C-alpha cells in the first residue's frame, strides 16, 4: 500500500495512532485555540519552571516572546508568531511535567536565545536563524 492510499484510509486529520495529524486543518485550529488559552494562563510559568529547572523569569520571557510579543516578521509586517501545533504540544507537556521530550527543552532554549537576539536589534528571521543553528527545534519535530 502506498502512503497516499494509507493516508486516504486513515483520513486527513488523524494518523493511525489516533493522534492529531500536525499538518491538518484541525491541528492548525487547535494551535490557534491553545495559544489563545496560554495567553490567559496564570500558573504555567511557575509550573514549567518547577518541571524543568529553568528560572520562572526566563520562562515568563519565553512565554512573552512566543505568545504575546509582536515581531518584525518575514514579510516585513509586525505581528505575533503564527501558532505551531508542535510548540503547543511542547508547552502542554512542559506544564504537565509528564512525558517531557528532549525537544521541549530545546524549544525553551531556542526561544530564550531568540528573544535575547531580537532584543539586540535583530528581526525575527535573523534571530531565528542564529537560535536554530544552536538549538534546532525544527529538526527534532520532523
Explain what you see.
63% of the residues lie in helices and 3% in strands. It has 8 helices and 2 strands, in the order H-H-H-H-E-E-H-H-H-H. It has helices spanning 3-10, 25-38, 44-52, 56-68, 85-96, 102-119, 124-134, 137-140, and strands spanning 71-72, 78-79. It has a two-stranded antiparallel sheet with strand order 1-2. The chain is globular. Mean pLDDT is 87; it is low at 1-18.
How do you describe this structure in short?
With 142 residues, this protein is mainly α. The chain contains eight helices and two strands, in the order ααααββαααα.
Draw up the topology in text:
Elements: H1 3-10, H2 25-38, H3 44-52, H4 56-68, E1 71-72, E2 78-79, H5 85-96, H6 102-119, H7 124-134, H8 137-140
Antiparallel strand pairs: 1-2
| Backbone CA Rg | 16 Å
The residue ranges in which pLDDT falls below 50 over 5 or more consecutive positions are 1-18
Number of helices: 8
Helix content, binned percent = 55-70%
Biggest sheet architecture: 2 strands, antiparallel
Overall, the morphology is globular
The chain-level structural class is mainly alpha
| SSE pattern, N- to C-terminal | HHHHEEHHHH
Gap from first CA to last CA: 22 Å
Strand segment tally: 2
For the largest sheet, list the strands in their spatial order. Answer: 1-2
Percentage of residues in strands: under 5%
How confident overall, as mean pLDDT?
87
